[in-house]
């Protein structure tokens, strides 16, 4: 629908105004990351640096390097595992089915929404018992397990539209569960795999609660926890804090700009966060 | 009958069944058991004392502070995000040039980690050289300067504002998809009947957005219950932003009162269940039809 002209001007003013509000925190983060201490004090946060420097970025990277590497390791591993399992589950729950498969799915779905506080104490105990406390493997296991409900939902939505006749035809040709999955379902799964992978990467990368509860030592510390600590140790060095924030946010920003439309599909299919 | 094919299915499904069964359901049950014990300190004790922790909780003034703050947060954040998201969705639906760019900008905060947004907003709200106060000074609005997040009177509202900023792009996305699924013919019919501008949205579009509004509502409610990262990083354990998830974490991991923390966690779980189960039940019934 189109409004008459003067109202269209108001419309764009509103849109730009909101765009400004939404971008302001990120913009000042970028400008401040390139400012020496002097500029942080003598320029407003929205202004560009007077004498741009990469110093804060280098300082922050030195502190964040190991945690960033840790985060990459467990995020990518748990992303791959939870997507594979989700794909298999989605296939079984839509195309194989068994008595009670809808109930199983309902119980999986509840897993999407539970406040993780409700599992935190037993989770910490379990990881200690398994000797995985403060270990990357513990985070991989945790993020894989809690990722299964949402990836199952995502793949189930996609597989719901694969025609059953396709599966039936393969069955009459004598193909079994695994063959049908590998030969028919998997080749049709590029899109759901991209959507689920992008979704899982960002949510695991962004996690803080599991990280702070399961990996307090430096060996497995995630970047989210390192950034929160950086905020404590560099209280007045805003430029270093902002630079650390930028490093930590960078992979998600890249995904957002390159694969944003897939991320949106994930959000719309039952987005949850936190 | 247990055919070879059934065994294959079982083997494929088993890892997920075990993982979800253990990490979601066994741990929740275990947490309830811990909440009924008297475990304090670092060695687990399963000396069951019944509902002692819950009785203590209901006599603990900090519990009610946290509950009250949690409620204020929910009452402001949930409608706030829904309305701003709806407003942005309607703006974008008005055949805007560069719609994709605006949509991307509004959604961007939602993709970021709460730790990122907490540090960003700490910088926005910083009273001495932070973004908001500096901009107010420069534009001659210095009298509006405030301690923001450090001010006990407005700190909680500052948190609410920041998480509305982070979530309204998400509600916008959900509403926009809902608006776009309404057939064009209905809109045209209403226009022929003389409806125009925002009337068209009020009379024709908004009444049809119940389903997206409900799913966004559930996501926002559950988030508002368990919001932890953002407030923990931004304000630590300040009284005026102390909510149940913070209390749970502090009692458990700072004070080592494991059974007490587990009791708070159980209450959080039950509150989430009250919101989620009816919703899941409804969506399942709709799917079956």
Q: Overview of this structure, please?
A:
The complex is a heterodimer of chains A (274) and B (289). In chain A, 77% of the residues lie in helices and 0% in strands. Chain A is mainly α. Chain A has two domains: 5-42; 55-268, MetI-like (MetI-like fold, Orthogonal Bundle). In chain A, helix 11 runs antiparallel to helix 12. With 289 residues, chain B is mainly α. Chain B has one domain (36-288): MetI-like (MetI-like fold). Chain B has helices spanning 4-35, 52-57, 61-93, 99-111, 114-125, 131-138, 155-180, 184-192, 197-205, 210-226, 229-235, 244-254, 258-288. The two termini of chain B are 30 Å apart. The model of chain B has no long low-confidence stretch (mean pLDDT 91). The chains are: A mainly alpha (274), B mainly alpha (289).
CATH architecture of the largest domain in chain A: Orthogonal Bundle
- Range of strand content of chain A: under 5%
Q: How many H/I helical runs of chain A?
A: 12
Largest sheet of chain B: none
Largest sheet of chain A: none
Q: Can you tell me the CATH topology of the largest domain in chain A? A: MetI-like fold
The fourth-level CATH homologous superfamily of the largest domain in chain A is: MetI-like
The CATH superfamily of chain B appears as: MetI-like
Count of the separate structural domains of chain A: 2
- The level of helicity of chain B is over 70%
User: Uncertain spans of chain B, ≥5 residues at pLDDT below 50?
Assistant: none
Question: Quick one: which chains have the greatest interface?
Answer: A-B, 93 and 100 residues
The separation of the N and C termini of chain A measures 36 Å
| Radius of gyration of chain A, taken over Cα atoms and rounded to an integer in Å | 23 Å
Residue windows where pLDDT falls under 50 for at least 5 positions of chain A: none
